[in-house]
Structures are given as C-alpha cells and as structure tokens.
Task: inverse folding
DNA sequence: AGGTCTGTTACTGA
DNA sequence: ATCAGTAACAGACC
C-alpha cells in the first residue's frame, strides 16, 4: 500500500498540470528567459537543439492544453512541456543551485533564478514550436475537448460514448474522447457518478452520461482547487511545484471500506491499468 | 531479482 | 481506413 500511495503523488494529471502552469505563470510571466540549458539528449523524444538557442526573450503567456504546459515567448515561439509520469519543476536560486539526479532542463530567468525540469523516468517531453504550428502539431493535433472547456458538453459526451465499444473506464481515459482524465481521476469520476467501470461505454443511459459529465468536471475542479491552495507557498517540503496531498475516495484503496456503504473497495485491471471501484455503489 | 506502477505512442490484427 | 487490444518505454520502490 505504502509504495503505491507514494507513487500516486508523483503522477501528474490535469489538475496537477494546471497547478504547475499557474505556478510557472506566477513566477515567470513577464520575466526574461535568459537561457535554456539542456542536460539530457532525450526524454520521451529528442530535445531539439533550437531550445538551447532561446536567449533573452520575454515570456508573455502561459497556458495549458491537456497535460501540456505552453510557455509563449515574444518571438512567437512556444515551449511545450509535458511532465510524463514523473516530471517535476522546481525553482532554484542560480547561486545556490546544485544539480540533482535527473535534472534535465534548466530555464534561467529573471534575476538569476532557475526553473528546473526534473524527470526520473524521462517519459515527459520538452519541445519548442512556432506559435502557429502548435495546434496542428504532432502533440496536440488529435486531442479531444478540454473537460473544463465549452466543447465538452453533455450531448457531446453521450453521443461520443454511444459510438464506443470499450469499457467506460477506458473510454474516458482516451484522449480523443476527453483530455486530461488519467487513471486516477477516471476511477474517482466513475465512483462519484455511481457507474461501474466495466460498463460498456455505449451502454450508458443518457442520464448516466450526463451524471458522469457532471462528476468529471466536479472531481477535476475540486482537485484544481486543492492544488491552487498550495500555490500560496509554492515551495513545498520537497520544493516541487504542483504536487499536493489530495485524498482519493477509491483510488489506491483496495480492500478498504467504501466511505458510503462500507463494502470493500475492489481492484480490477482495465486497459492495462489498475481500476478501483465499489461493487455495491457502482452498478453495471 | 522480479513484479508493479504510470501516460502515451507504436504496433498488430480484425 | 478505423477501431480495439497489447507491448513498450524508464526508473524507483519493494
């Protein structure tokens, strides 16, 4: 149990990425990016040489798309950052910085400060694109709607699920259906909506799809709120940005009592990923 | 030492 | 072409 729970805190999903983005925005927006130093040849993919060439540019905008953080520079170049499964960003003072294991990219900015990208498993990515190419890029071109954006409507979700013959758990984790819902919040959303994760997506009633729509949004918003509250003092115990203690109702709680009915939480594997649910509260 | 865990893409086959 | 299922990636932790 213990190692699993520890791992949970290290996997960024949409709320964590949103929190990281807001933290970067708070510290770096309007500052000058002096230099980018790359200490690894590749993460998930090659880190482009052009990243090293970014010097003395003002940072004019931060945004998020799915689990990607976008940092826009005044030259209309955009740095894309994905944290993968173990990526972290820490702020450091240039004077006192000591390179840690897995520190791969250093963003020197402002008054001798550094935003350090650290990623043990190297499943993340850092790339730089022209602003006009971002939406149609390899990374973003086939992504579905943002769960907290206007395109993710109840009608959209119901209609999309009707065409899908995978389990509802797998369906809401598919990026084409909706972005940003990873393994943790998929289980949490289905528990909140009282829907069994093995239910075929196309078998959801309209009422179930609408309830799930509501729950996905609520679960993500609650997590973002929890993350936002940690931003007041972004330098946490381990110094990492965007990681916060958040309690889950089913995730990682196999054999523990359901908070609603006291039945034991069960675990199954769906789409190669562990899935947690209450067999009594979540009907198939 | 070998299993587990994760997000995303690539591959395979229907 | 599209969909669904599976393997792979890397490193930490037991």
Result:
């Amino acid at each position: 149990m213990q190692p699993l729970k520890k791992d949970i805190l290290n996997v960024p999903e949409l709320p964590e990425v949103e929190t990281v983005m807001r933290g970067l925005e708070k510290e770096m927006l309007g500052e000058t990016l002096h230099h980018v130093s790359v200490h690894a040849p590749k993460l998930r993919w090659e880190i482009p040489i052009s990243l090293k060439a970014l010097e003395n540019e003002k940072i004019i905008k931060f945004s998020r798309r799915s689990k990607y953080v976008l940092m826009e520079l005044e030259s209309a170049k955009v740095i894309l950052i994905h944290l993968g499964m173990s990526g972290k960003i820490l702020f450091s003072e240039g004077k006192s910085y000591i390179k840690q294991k897995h520190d791969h990219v250093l963003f020197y900015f402002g008054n001798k400060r550094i935003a350090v990208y650290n990623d043990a498993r190297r499943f993340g990515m850092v790339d730089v694109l022209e602003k006009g190419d971002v939406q149609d890029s390899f990374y973003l071109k086939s992504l579905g709607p943002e769960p907290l954006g206007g395109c993710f409507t109840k009608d959209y979700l119901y209609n999309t699920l009707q065409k899908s013959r995978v389990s509802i758990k797998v369906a809401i984790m598919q990026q084409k259906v909706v972005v940003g819902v990873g393994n943790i919040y998929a289980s949490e959303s289905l528990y909140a909506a009282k829907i069994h994760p093995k239910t075929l997506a196309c078998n959801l009633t309209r009422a179930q799809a609408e309830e799930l729509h509501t729950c996905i949004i609520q679960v993500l918003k609650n997590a973002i709120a929890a993350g936002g509250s940690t931003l007041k003092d972004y330098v946490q115990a381990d110094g990492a940005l965007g990681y916060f203690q958040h309690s889950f109702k089913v995730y990682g709680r196999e054999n523990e009592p359901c908070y609603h009915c006291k039945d034991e939480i069960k675990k199954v594997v769906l789409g190669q990923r562990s899935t947690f649910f209450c067999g009594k509260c979540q009907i198939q």
Q: What stands out?
A: The CA atoms of residues 131 and 272 of chain A lie 35 Å apart. The radius of gyration of chain A is 20 Å.
